[in-house]
């Protein structure tokens, strides 16, 4: 029995080593939670800024009518708001991921993380350029579902290099983005659900599954 137990333990360790070499396991659930909170804060700021005069224009029926200074004012605010949310979420995400990697005694920048980053960047950069074109041609209402869809595609693409939970989050973002294409007039709400609520749910699940009982090194 003791010999059988030793063999099983050895196989478990080999499997763990193989998984670590092929998958990036240092993604932190706290990164998802912080990203969700930041996204909700950004959506709240947008709502507070636009509710009196522009919020009802975030739909295809009226967006094309918005021109001149009013359009430029709204575009500038939404771009600044989005960039602040993105940068802040990335900073928190990097910090929490580095902290988790150190606890695991691993290096964040390795061949697997490079492959993960490459898989994420292709859809994200493509989606970013696509959104610039939408804004250029006064299709601002489409940028909200578009960011959800391309972000979901990026997560789905990168999920093969990390935990399976990322794939589920990616598919959820894609589905919500596709629904948002037809659920016009609620662009800000769907964006807040996708980048805010879903991230918090995903991050909480990740933290409970992979981090809560993880020993510190």
Oligomeric nature of the chains: single chain
What is the total number of structural domains?
1
Largest sheet: none
Number of strands: 0
What is the helix tally? 8
Proportion in helices: over 70%
The outline comes out as: elongated
Label the structural class: mainly alpha
Q: Give the ordered list of helices and strands.
A: HHHHHHHH
**Low-pLDDT regions:** 10-22
Give the rounded overall mean pLDDT.
79
Question: How do the strands and helices of this protein lay out in sequence?
Answer:
Blueprint: H1 2-22, H2 29-50, H3 60-63, H4 68-104, H5 111-136, H6 140-158, H7 165-182, H8 187-211
Helix pairs in contact: 2-4, 2-8, 5-6, 6-7, 6-8, 7-8
What descriptors fit this protein?
217 residues, mainly alpha, 79% helix, 0% strand
